[in-house]
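hiii so my PI (J.) wants the whole complex modelled not just the main chain, which honestly fair. so below is everything: two entries, each one labled with what it is. i double checked the lines twice but i was tired so who knows lol
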Amino acid sequence: MAERSFAREVQDLKLTAGQEFRGEGILAVTKALLQSGVGYVAGYQGAPISHLMDVLSDAQDIMADLGVHFEASASEASAASTLAASVMYPIRGAVTWKSTAGTNVASDALSNLASGGVMGGAVIVIGEDYGEGSSIMQERTHAFAMKSQMWLLDPRPNLPSIVRAVEDAFELSEASNTPVMLELRIRACHVHGSFIAKDNVKPKFTLAQALESPRRDTGRIVLPPASFIHEQEKIKQRWPAAVKFIRERGMNETFAGEHDDIGIILQGGMYNGVMRALQLFGLADIWGQSKIPLHVLNVTYPLIDEDLADFCRGKRAVLMVEEGQPDYLEQALHAILRKADVPTRLCGKDVLPMGGEYTALVLVDGLRKFLDRHAPALLRDARTPPDPGPVLRSDAVKALLPVVPPRPPSFCTGCPERPIFSAMKLVQQELGEHHVAADIGCHLFSINAPFNIGATTMGYGLGASSAAAMQVKAGKRPISVMGDGGFWHNGLASGVSNAVFNKHDGVILLVDNHYSAATGGQDIPSSRAANVSRSTNHPIEAAVRGVGATWVKRIDNTYSVAKMRDTLREALTTKDGGPKIVIAASECMLNRQRRERPQFNAAVKRGERRVKPRFGVDEDICTGDHACIRLSGCPSLSVKDSCDPLKEDPVAAIDNTCVGCGNCGEVAEAAVLCPSFYRADIVHNPSRFERFVDGIRNRIIGTLQRRRDASRLALA
Amino acid sequence: MDGSIQTFEKPVGIAILAMGGQGGGVLADWIVALAEAEGWFAQSTSVPGVAQRTGATIYYVEIMRPQPGRQPILSLMPVPGDVDVVIAAEMMEAGRAIQRGLVTPDKTTLIASSHRSLAVLEKAKPGDGRADAGTVAATATQVARRFLAADMQAMAERSGSVISAALFGALAGSAALPFGRDAFEATIRAAGVGVEGSLRAFAAGFASVSAAPEAKPAQAPAPAIISGGSEAERAELVRAVQRIEQDFPAPSRDMLRHGVRRLVDFQDAAYAHEYLDRVAGLLKLDSAGHGFALTAEAAKQIAVAMSYDDVIRVADLKTRSSRTARVRAEVAAKPDQLVGTTEFFHPRLEEICATLPVAWGLALERSDMWSGLVRKLFERGRRIQTGTLRGFLTLYAISALKPRRRTLLRHQREQAHLAAWLALVAQHAATDGRLGVELLKCRRLVKGYSDTHARGQSKFARVTGAVALLAGREDAAAWIRRLRDAALADEDGTMLEGALATVASLSLPEPVGTTS
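here's the output for the full assembly
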C-alpha cells in the first residue's frame, strides 16, 4: 500500500471518448497508456514517476477488466527486461522509472532489447529527475538513447501533448522496431492540466495468446552473428523508418513568426519556459503566438537532419535551447548545418549555461544575449523583462542572508530510523568515529544535522558493497547502511551475499521499515501488510541467512535506543568473523499513522477503550541545553521561550504533531540526559473499573498534593 | 508603438512555500479548483521530491481568464520579479521567498504565517540559536507590495484544522484574486474533507488579514501575595520582600523578586535571605553610574545557581498538583479521558552520592566496592509512573528530603562552587564592572543534567579560568562574552577551544622584528 491513495484518481482512468480528464501530468500518462491498448505495464517507483506506479497499483481491477498485466518490478532492470514480451509478439508494453538512476540499473536489459529490436510497441516512460527538486546526480538520459539507439521523446509539457506523445510513441516503436523513451521532467510530471479523453482499448494480442502459441527467432537473440546484423539493421532499416514516421506524423512542430531571419530550436520540454521568456520581452503572447519562429523538438533523438536544415536555411542565426550537458543536440546541429552547407550562425551554450536547470531567469538572460548579438534592433524595441536584481541587491534582502536557516529534508516525526542513528551517535561517542557507507533511501538523511553520519553513497542498495574495499584488519570496523528497499532491489546479492562470499568483517545495518518508504511507501517482499495482489511477509532475516550470513541480530523495536546501541556496540566489537548483520525493523511512521489513525478513531467512536501515547517536556525541569535535540532532531521536538525570566535560553517543547513514538524518552534515558521528558498515556473510553481505581488514586494523591500545597511557602 | 505583442491579459502567478506536512499541495489544489470552478484556466506544478520529508517545497499556480478556443501557455515555475502572490506557510520560508526574488515591491502580495517552525540547526545549539523572525518581517515590509502576516498555525490549531485552510482564508481576505469569499468557501465544501474545521480556520485566516489587529492591553504588575507555610515563615518572607524594596536599587528589584520567589520555592525563606545577602555583597561594588548592572545580573544568576537542579527538586516538581493539571492541558485530554504519566529517570552513582549526607556520600564515592555495588543495583533506566500510588509515593518521598537539603553532599558542592565563582566576580568587579557582569553571565553555561551538566561545568571553568589571562585588559569583558558565545555555539566545545587558543595568543609577548 502506498503512502498516498489514488482511489479517486483511478476513476478518471475510466473516462470515455469526449470526456475531460483533469489531473497531474503523470496520471495523464496512465490514461494514455490504456487508450493506446497497452498489454502490460511494469516499473520501479521513484520521484517523479511514483504516482504512475501508485495509480496503476490502485487501479488493478480496471486493468484486469482490460486484460492489462501490471507488475511492480523488483528493480528497473526487472522492469526493462519485462519489455522482452514485445520482442516476438505484437503486444504493446510500457515500463517506467526515475532517470538517470533507474536507466543506469536498466541499461543491460535496454541494450539487449534495443539490439534485437521489438515487434510490439515498447515504451519507457522516463521521469527525468533533473534540476530543482531532484534527489539524484545531475545527468541526462539522452546519452542512453544515443548509445543503444532508442528514440527519445521530449514532449511539450502540457497534458494534450504528453498524451499524444504516449500514443505516438507506441506507433513509432512499432514502425521502427525500436524501443522508445518518453522523457518527462519533474514539473511536467506534476503539472495539473486537462485533456479530452478517448476510450480505453483492450490489447489486440494478449499475453495469454503469446503463451499458448509461442514464437522464437534466433535472429532476435543477441548473440553472434545476429548481434552484428542488429547493428546494421539499426542503421539501414530502423533509423530511416523512424525518421519517416516522425516526419509523416509531424511529431516535431514548427511555429512561424514574423522575424524569420532568426529562430529558436528547443526541446519540447523547454517550450513553456521559452514562451514565458519571449512573453516577458513582449515577443510572444500568452496564447502561443511568437514573433520569432520556433522549431520544437518533441523528438530529441533521432534528429531529423533535413527538417533542421530547412528551418535554419535563410536565417542569420538560431538559438538552440538544450537543457543539461553535454550539449549533444547543439553538437549534432553544428554537424547537420555544416553537412547541409547552411551558413546560419548557431548559438546555444555560449549564451546559455552549460549545466543546471533552465529556469525562467536563465532563459531570459540567454535570450537577451542571443538577441543582442543577432537581432539588436529587436532587443532595443522589446519590453524590459522584470528584474529582481535591484531588490536582491538591497540591504534589506542582504540582511536575510545570516538569518534564514537552511532546511534540509530529514526524518519525519516519529520516524523509526531516527533512534537507529541516535544509537549510532551514542556508540560513536563511546568507540570513536567510524567509516559509515551510506545508501539511498530515507536513512540517507543521517548525513545531515543533527546526526552527521555517513561518508559515501554509491547507489540504491549499494551501501554494503560500497564498503567492500574497507574490509581489511584495522582497529575499527566499517559500518554500512542499507534500506529494505535497496536490499530487495539488488542489495541482497550485491551487498550481503558479496560480503558473505568475500568474508567481510564489517557491520551491515539493514533498515527495515516495511516499505520502500522514500519513494512513497510501496510494498516490497518483506512488507508486513497483507497485499491481495502481491506476495509479502518474506523476512529479510531469512533471506540473509539463506545466502550464508551467520552473525545476524534483529531488533523489532528500533525505538529501544539502548538495545539498538548495545547491539551495534556488540557488532562492532565481537570477535566473530564474517559480516555482522543488524536488522533494525520498525514500521515507517508515515505509513503506520495512515494505517492506524482511522482505525483508532473508529474504535474510539465505537466506545472502545484505546490508549494514545504522547510525549511532553516539563519546562520547569528543562534547563535549555538542547542535548535531546542533538540526539533526535524530531520535527515535533522544538524549543520555545520559557515563561521563567530566570531562564535565558529557550526550553525544549513537544508540539501536538507528536505521534508518541517514544524516541525522546528512550534517548533521554539511554544517553542519561535529563528527567524533563514524560509520556502521557491518554485513555479514551476507560473502563468502569479503571475509572474506579483512578478515582481512588486521585483521591489519595490529591490529598497529599493539597497538604503539600498548603504547607509550601510561596510568593506569587 | 513598441515592437511588443500586446498580451491583453497576463496570468496571475501564485507561489506557495511550505514545508512537508503543511498541506502546500492541498492549498495549491484548492486554488486550482477555485479558479476552474469560476471558469478560469489553471495550471499548477511543484517539485516535491525528497523535500516532502520535512524540507521546504515550492508549489506554483498560474490562473488565467480563458478565451474561447484558445489555451494559454503558462509557466511551470515562478519567474523572480513577476509573481503576484506569494504564500509562505512559515516565517523563514517567507524570508526564503524574498531571497529567491519572488517578492518585489511593484507586484507581490506576500501572505505569511508569522509562526516559526524551527530548523534543526536552530534548535540544536546549546544556547539560543533561533533565527530572528523580526528581520524577515522588517525586510518583507520593505520589499513586498503588501505584506500580510498572522499566526495562521495558531488559528488552524484553535479551529481544529490545518494551516493550509487558514492560509486559504488569508488569500481570500487579501482580495488578491478576483474571486469572492463564497467561491473560496465553496471550494472547501466541494473538497469534502474536514469541512467544518477548515471553514473555521478559513474564517480566522480571512479576518486576520482584513481586520486591524487588536491592541493588547498592558499588564499591570501583580501585587506580591504570600501563601502557605507557618506564620513565622511568612513573616520571614515578608521581611525578604521588604529588603528588596529598602536595600536594593530599582533596576534590580524585579529580578530579585523573581529570585526570591524561585528560592523560597526551592528551599525556604531563610534561603531567600541568604540569596539577598549574596547579592548585597556585590551591590557594594556596584554603582548608579553603571546602572546597577552588576546587581541586576547578580540577582538573576545567583538565583539560578542557588536553585540547582537536584533530584529533590525534580521529584518535587513532578509531584505537584499544578503539574498534573498542566500535563492534562498540554496533551489536550478531555474530562472523560484518563491520563497516566511515565517519567524517564536514569539515576547514577553520582546522583545517589549527591543525595546522601556529606560524610556518607563521600565515603560511598571513595569505596570502590560499595560504589560498584550501588552501580550494579541502581544504575539503570527507571520509568516511574507518577499516576500510580507506587510511582507517586516514590517521588513524593524523595521530594520530602527538601528540609534536609542543606546537609547533603550536592548542596555542599554547589555552595563551594558558588562561593568560588562569586569571589572571582568580586575580585574583578571591583576594578572592572563590565567584566564582573560578564563573569556572572557565565553561569548560563552550567545547565543540563549528568554528562551535559559536567560538560557545562567544564566549559564554565574554562571560560571563567581565562580571566586570569585577560584581567586588566580594556577588552577583557568583551573577550569573556566572546568565549561564552563560543561555548554556547556547539556541543563539544570546538568553537570554545579555538577562541581560547586566540586568548592564549593574546597574552604572548609581541613578536619582535617582524613587520606584519
